[in-house]
Amino acid sequence: MCAPRPRRVPPFAAVAALVSRSVALALLAAAGALTPIAAPPAEAASFRPCALSLRDQDPPGGTSAYDLTLERISVRCATAKTVMAAFHRCRAPVGSRCFRKVAGSWRCTGRRDSGTPVFAGSFTCRSGRRRVRSSYRQATPDCFGAAARDPRRRCVNPARSLGPPDDMSWVCDPGAVPGACLFGHLGPETRGHFAVVGDSHVTHWRSALNVVAQSERWRGYSLAAGGCFFSEAVGRFLEACDGWYRATLAWFSQHPEVSTVFVTSNADTPVAVHPGETSDGVKVDGFRRAWQALPRSVRHVVVLRDTTISTPETLLCLERAVAAGSRRLSTACPLARSHALRPDLAVVAARRLRSERYAHIDLSDFLCAPSVCFPAVGGAQVNADVWGHLTSTFMTTLGPYLLRELRRLMATWEPSPRPARIPSPRRAQPE
Which whole-number Å values give the CA distances from 254 to 67, 244, 258, 342, in the listed order? Predict the structure, then answer.
């Protein structure tokens, strides 16, 4: 039998070194110098954007979405889009919040931004370390503004007050591009360029067109002058407008990236007539000549049918109805459609040209019933004054329906070449 081997005792120097190291580590830990090393959370990773098609931007839920963004971490865009659509189906029946699982293992939370007349919100979905998030606006499940007259989904807004007051203008950058006011999608990856041209009615249409521009990632140019409709006959109304008209034609020649032009103007603007002429004939011919004078780089001219006017009595009636807390505010103080909605000869000109290049969009039924028009729709005041200017609040709610009509129209257009990119200036002062 072997004798046990004696236990080896470490020398004094080794023991001292071990003790010194232990003491040093203890002191560092006590001082907070040592921190545990952990893997960074998934949120620390960068979200990457997903490009969205036209169909992606109309998620389920009964209302049109716009200003929609989609980003993801550790997941493909195809999966992120599936999660986004599942979240919208989840959210639709319960309002603004959705906490149950969607698309398998994904769990989503969403929130609604308060204090805005247009429904806005965002959501984040998680599945392990994977993340999908999105923000969006909608023309509202609360049936606000133009949504109250959507023929595809009629609803009743019981509001006894109106949305926040505003003016008829919409802020854009007048200094970034000489001769025009810039708005819409100003970031990178712009998909197209358009312009809206005409008199002061351009300013309220810009609110609706901004919805279109943000959704389609288009950059918009606003070329407007008070009282000056875009027509070769504009000088017959105001001689000073003739110079603006010539300068506008020259501007388009210098900006071949603009492929679509929206035109709009006050339908009541008169023109001087010579012997043997009629006012209607002069105006229709003036529109036709102006549009045909645009360079070939402008592939499409779209007339936005002029909107309604009001009267001092109607606006006073609406003010009294609001003060009285009327239960039927959206049908209060109607004005005969024949008076509020004047014939628009620009629409007549577009029809007579009989060309794919020229078209028109008429959204009058969002402002009017068959026989009357309303100064308030869906809890939003429509008319800003008696000269046919509309509030930007209402026109913003009209934006998704302008987008819907425009997409229907675009489906008939031939594909156009990809436009050249231009720098993305920052927003400046109002026009």
Answer: 30, 15, 10, 35
Residue whose structure tokens are 């008209």: 245
Cα gap 329→375, rounded to integer Å: 9
Q: What does the alpha-carbon distance between residue 321 and residue 120 come to, in Å, rounded to a whole number?
A: 28
DSSP state of 390: B
Q: What are phi and psi of 154, to 5 degrees?
A: -65, 140
The two structure tokens encoding residue 159: 């509001």
Name the most confidently modeled range: 78-92, 182-196, 293-307, 412-426: 293-307
> pTM of this prediction?
0.69
Cα torsion angle, 383, 386, 388, 392, sign? negative
The 10s digit of each residue's pLDDT in 278-336 is: 999 999 999 999 999 999 999 999 999 999 999 999 999 999 999 998 888 888 999 99
Q: Provide the residue ranges of all domains of the chain, joining segments of one domain with +.
A: 45-138, 159-410
Domain 159-410, CATH homologous superfamily name and number: SGNH hydrolase (3.40.50.1110)
Q: Mind listing the pLDDT tens digit for each residue in 130-163?
A: 999 987 765 444 578 998 999 887 788 887 888 7
The DSSP call for residue 20 is: H
Between the alpha carbon of residue 37 and those of residues 21, 115, 234, the distances in Å are 20, 43, 73
d(CA 186, CA 179): 17
